[in-house]
Write a structure and sequence with these properties.
The chain is mainly α. Helices cover about 35% and strands about 5% of the residues.
């Protein structure tokens, strides 16, 4: 039977925050503006700016997949979700 964790309990390995970081893929030579990325993905400017700077921390699952797809386009190869995350 599943049990709910209290707000004071932490999952194993979750002490360090994780962020989506597209900075490795969204480099200046890609010449992709936040506005153009917004048109490509449908995501808002704040989400895209945070991900570009490596500070995107919270979002919906659909957003993660859209960011992964954008990073894949920028990298020119398929990427996994794990490849777009960084530890703080």
């Amino acid at each position: 039977m599943a049990r709910k964790l209290s707000s004071e309990q932490k999952l194993c390995g979750s002490e360090m925050p994780k962020y989506v970081d597209l900075s490795r893929y969204w480099t200046e030579d890609k010449n992709l503006s936040i506005q153009k990325a917004k048109e490509m993905t449908g995501l808002d400017k704040r989400t895209l700016s945070s991900a570009k700077q490596g500070r995107f921390e919270r979002g919906q699952f659909e957003t993660l997949f859209k960011l992964r797809d954008l990073a894949s386009q920028l990298a020119g190869k398929p990427l996994t979700l794990e490849e777009i995350f960084k530890d703080d």
